[in-house]
Amino acid sequence: MMAEETFVHWLEQQADRQDPVGAIARWFRDDGCWTRPGWTRPQAPGEIDDHLSYHRASTDLVAGMREAWREWGRPRGEVTP
């Protein structure tokens, strides 16, 4: 049985999109914290919101993250913000 795809892995694959989900994927791809070896990446919406807030991300990026979380969670039956 294959391991379930995590939100982080799914988001990394969205960087080529030309919409808010793609914008947040590129932001995280280019974030020095996000790519630092040994750093534990946030995995829940609240943890990711905290990370975005800490880095003073724009409201558009926060909205893109929430849309990404909804998109990723929809086929998994996840409760989404």
Could you describe the 3D structure shown?
The protein is mainly α and 81 residues long. It is built from 5 helices and no strands. It is globular and about 30 Å long.
Rg, nearest Å: 12 Å
Instruction: Compute the number of structural domains.
Output: 1
- Number of contiguous helices: 5
Question: What are the secondary-structure elements, in order, as H or E?
Answer: HHHHH
**Spatial gap, N to C terminus:** 29 Å
Number of E-type strands? 0
Low-confidence stretches: none
- The percent range for helix content is 55-70%
In this structure, how is the largest beta sheet organized?
Answer: none
Q: How much strand content do the residues show?
A: under 5%
Helix/strand layout:
Elements: H1 7-12, H2 20-30, H3 32-35, H4 45-54, H5 59-73
